[in-house]
Specification:
InterPro entries: LexA/Signal_pep-like_sf (IPR036286), Pept_S26A_signal_pept_1 (IPR000223), Pept_S26A_signal_pept_1_CS (IPR019758), Pept_S26A_signal_pept_1_Lys-AS (IPR019757), Peptidase_S26 (IPR019533). The protein is an alpha+beta fold. It has four helices and twelve strands; from the N terminus they run H-E-E-H-E-E-E-E-E-H-E-E-H-E-E-E. The strands form two sheets. Strands 1, 2, 3, 4, 9, 10, 11 and 12 form an eight-stranded antiparallel beta sheet that branches. It has a four-stranded antiparallel beta sheet with strand order 7-6-5-8, with no helix packed on it.
Length: 187
């Protein structure tokens, strides 16, 4: 009887350790939670939104335009922004229009904000890639240009410069909390 009880405890302990090990592996290499901190991605994301970050996706693919990514801005702080420019591209904004290699590109996630602008109000100040830290004429391989959706209140590539793909933690597209904001994000 005592030996059976000891085996039962050992089995439970073994199952618990395996479960903890699997959870640690999944959180470290595949998925992790993140909490949005600040207004820089409004109205798409709100302060306090809780999301899942897919850490694995960029091991098998490259970032795409308009992906929402989490990246290491400093040793202690991660930021969440939207990928706007990709390697080899020239990026500019003039009169509220995004230009990639001189061609206008729609930003559907900004339409509502642009419609609500007052006549003299500006959502995105004009800039060219050359004006950003680094003075690049095209985005080098291994880098992306990121912007927040709340362009007037965002610390992004216009201040930080281009973001190395090595700094990117992963892609996020699922808001799971608060429950009334639960959704998959689209472009």
């Amino acid at each position: 009887m005592a030996k059976r009880k000891k085996n039962e405890w050992f089995d439970w302990l073994k199952a618990l350790l395996i479960a903890l090990g699997l959870a640690l592996i999944v959180r470290t290499f595949f998925f992790a939670p993140i909490v949005v901190d600040g207004p820089s991605m409004q109205p798409t994301l709100h302060n306090g939104d809780q999301m899942i970050v897919n850490k694995f996706v960029y091991n098998i693919s490259e970032p795409d335009r308009f992906d929402i990514v989490v990246f290491h801005a400093t040793d202690k702080k991660d930021f969440i922004k939207r990928v706007i420019g990709l390697p080899g591209e020239h990026v500019a904004v003039k009169d509220e229009v995004l230009y990639i290699d001189g061609e206008p590109v729609d930003e559907p996630f900004l339409e509502e904000q642009k419609e609500n602008l007052e006549p003299q109000e500006v959502l995105t100040d004009d800039f060219r890639l050359e004006d950003l830290p680094g003075n690049d004429t095209t985005i080098p391989d291994g880098y992306v240009l990121v912007l927040g959706d709340n362009r007037d209140n965002s610390t992004d590539s216009r201040i930080l410069g281009l973001i190395s793909e090595d700094q990117i933690v992963g892609k996020t597209s699922l808001v799971y909390w608060p429950f009334d904001r639960f959704r998959l994000l689209k472009e």
